[in-house]
Every structure is written in structure tokens, then in C-alpha cells.
Design goal:
This protein is of the alpha+beta class. Helix content is 42%, strand content 20%. The protein contains six helices and six strands.
């Protein structure tokens, strides 16, 4: 059985976000992606994510034997929000509670465009934490812990 349509999952999240006065975090992920798993663990361990966002996980770019896990229509949403089907995962999009895009994990590092869905370079980490600060309800110590996690504990 195929995963539910991406548009349906996002529409459900918009309704829930409006009821709960939360923003929405859409994560484009794949089962083979180690950075996606790390991000999943971080999101699960930090209460600020649950307090701030309705989370939508979209399964994308699976290998042939797992293609049925994909959420149909993910490529259309990714393209609408500036991503491309070739972009690295995890690719993250932050929406307000009405479903309007307010941020994503696409960054420019110098002249090089990149996706910092799981940031590893210091400018990416700072940008990611700044996005959490402006879109979410995080405590200062939570943001510090998140930054330390991205830095590998340092």
C-alpha cells in the first residue's frame, strides 16, 4: 500500500495547526537517509518541537524496492516550496498555521546553494536555530542544546 497523498497530510496539518495555534514543520525524508534519522531523534527528544509545530513527515526519493512508502505528490509540494526532487534530504519547510511558507532549509553558503535540513556547518547551524527561534516556542536552553547536537556535542 502506498503512503497517503502529501497534499492530504499537509491539509490535515493546517487544520490541526489552526486548532492548536501551532506552526507546521514539513520534513521531506527517506528511509535510507542517516541524517533524516538523526533529525527524527532530535525532534523526538526536544519538547520545543512538540510545543511549536504540527509535524508532517513526507517520505520521498525511495529506492525502487521501497517506492511504495513514498507519499504521492511530494515532488509537487517540494517544487512549490523551492526545493527540487534532486535536493538532498532531509529538506524542511516551515509553514504558519494557515499553511503559508515562512522558511525552509535551503541556504546559500557563499556562492554555493545547499540544503541544511540537518545542519553541520556553523553558518547553517546558526540559521537553523534562528528559524526555530522565529517560528517556534523554544526556550533558550532548548535552542542551545539543539545547536550543541548539530555541532556533535561541542
Amino acid at each position: 500500500p502506498q503512503g497517503p497523498p502529501a497534499e492530504t497530510l499537509v491539509a490535515n496539518a493546517v487544520r490541526r495547526a489552526a486548532r492548536e495555534s501551532k506552526a507546521i514543520l514539513v520534513a521531506f525524508e527517506a528511509s535510507w537517509c542517516p541524517w533524516c534519522r538523526r533529525l527524527d531523534r532530535l525532534i523526538a527528544s526536544e519538547p520545543g518541537f512538540r510545543r511549536s509545530y504540527v509535524l508532517v513527515r513526507l517520505t520521498v526519493r525511495e529506492r525502487e524496492e521501497k517506492r511504495a512508502l513514498e507519499n504521492p505528490g511530494w515532488g509537487t509540494l517540494m517544487a512549490r516550496w523551492r526545493g527540487s526532487p534532486e535536493m538532498d534530504v532531509p529538506y524542511l519547510v516551515w509553514l504558519d498555521r494557515t499553511g503559508k511558507k515562512v522558511a525552509d532549509s535551503y541556504r546559500r553558503t557563499g556562492d554555493i546553494p545547499s540544503n541544511a535540513g540537518y545542519p553541520r556547518l556553523e553558518p547553517e547551524i546558526r540559521a537553523f536555530v534562528a528559524t526555530l527561534r522565529t517560528t517556534g516556542k523554544f526556550r533558550k536552553e532548548e535552542l542551545s542544546r539543539i545547536a550543541r547536537t548539530f555541532r556533535g556535542g561541542r
